[in-house]
Amino acid sequence: MARVPSTPARMVGTVFVTCLVAASALAATYMLTRDRIAEQEAAAERLALQSVLSGADAFTLAEELLPAAAEAAGDVPVTAVYRATTATGEGAGWGVRLSPRGYAGPVQVVVGLDRDGLVSGVSIITHNETPGLGTKILTEPGWMDQFTGWDGADIAASARGFDNIAGATKSAVAIRNGVTAAGAVYAEVLAGQTEGVQAP
Amino acid sequence: MREWTGVFRRGLSLENPLTMLMIGLCPTLAVSTKVEGAFFMGVAVIFVLTMSVVLVSSLRLYVPEQVRIPVFIVIVASFVTIVDLSMKAFLPDVYIFLGVWIPLIVTNCIILGRAEAFAYHNKVSLSAADGLGMGAGFSIVIVTLGLIRELFGSGEIVFLGARLLSFPEWYRAPNVLLLFPGAFIVFGFMVAAAKWYNLRTGTRMVQTSAHCTIEEGGR
């Protein structure tokens, strides 16, 4: 059997039909996996929030605060602000998700701040840092703990004690920028909020 | 049937994409730090490769030569995206570990190479044998590499959260195995072993066999 002759119409038609079929197959896969993926992402996010705010039981997205928070953070993009509450509905602090620029693209971090504005923990959700070098921000023992206790109300003072990592300078600075921006968000936006009251 | 097994077995040893043809090395060296990642990378490649070559082969008489590459790429990219979405949904931890290497299967030379060199010129059953054989050959090598690197590089093997094997406390794992130099060194030994095996069994790689060997149909 011989291959079909190549006429311009056939070429265009073949590519068109292939793309059409491929697009429908992908749309179907997307529909089938969409809910599952959203579930998984929500679970991963909850886990990150839980790890930085161990005292909280529930996290609600505070969308109304996001524009003001984005403004306060300056150059560092803020992607979400969470209001943390305890089981009794009392305010337990705040979770701020930011994506400061690392060495190889944005590093997604969640910074937890307790009711008094002290940093309670930092967790990295995703990153593209160089394995073995930039990833020291994850593997260096105890390095991440230095941010705990930084004062959101006066983050610049706390940031002076920042300890960098040789070989992971840019990646470490990215985390510091994230925490500093989260402090600014707290000082300018979150500190004035009567947290917990509006929580459902 | 003999032809079928012959084509299948070529992918495993004589024309193994990694140790003999030396294509698709980039993801191999990158994700073989963990057996788990290597295993699912192998599964993903077998799936994408087999599905793509079967589809390319069954469409080969209807795809004009001038537009074959765009058509192949669309087919391969679709299967890769299907794998990408399914893995994200059902194996999130593995997905995070494999990261960019799953989408990059699209540009893996093994897949486009087999579609172009074999599937476009051979009938569906033989193309399926070629896809399965090449995919299995790839998986065997990448999993073996992962086993060696994870076992000796980190002292234990963890698969989907379960510890399968571990060295006693006194073992100090050399970090170099988990870094790229270690990957090259271990892989070099594996290439040597594969070549030695092929020499011993009296089979030699035919340089031209990377291109189509069983010509059928037009041109």
Structure write-up:
The complex is a heterodimer of chains A (200) and B (219). Chain A contains five helices and seven strands, in the order H-E-H-E-E-E-E-E-E-H-H-H. Chain A is of the alpha+beta class and 200 residues long. Chain A has one domain. In chain A, a hairpin with a 5-residue loop joins strand 2 and strand 3 (91-98). The longest helix of chain A has 45 residues, at 8-52. The radius of gyration of chain A is 22 Å and the shape is elongated. In chain B, strands 1-2 form a two-stranded antiparallel ribbon. In chain B, helix 3 packs antiparallel against helix 7, helix 4 (68-90) crosses helix 5 (92-98) and helix 4 (68-90) crosses helix 6. Chain B starts with a helix and ends in a 19-residue tail after the last helix. The interface between A and B is medium-sized, with 27 and 29 residues.
| Main sheet record of chain A | 5 strands, antiparallel
Q: Classify the helix fraction of chain B into a percent range.
A: 55-70%
Mean pLDDT figure of chain B = 87
H/E order of the elements of chain B? HHHHHHHEEH
Distance between the termini of chain A: 70 Å
Instruction: Note the beta-strand portion of chain B.
Output: under 5%
Enumerate how many helices of chain B there are, as a single number.
8
- In the sheet with the most strands of chain A, the strands line up as 1-2-3-6-7
Low-confidence segments of chain B: 207-219
Model regions low in confidence, pLDDT < 50 over at least 5 residues of chain A: 196-200
End-to-end separation of chain B in angstroms reads 26 Å
Main sheet specs of chain B: 2 strands, antiparallel
Separate helix tally of chain A:
5
Q: Which structural class best describes the helix and strand composition of chain B?
A: mainly alpha
What general outline of chain B do the C-alpha atoms trace? globular
Report the strand count of chain A.
7
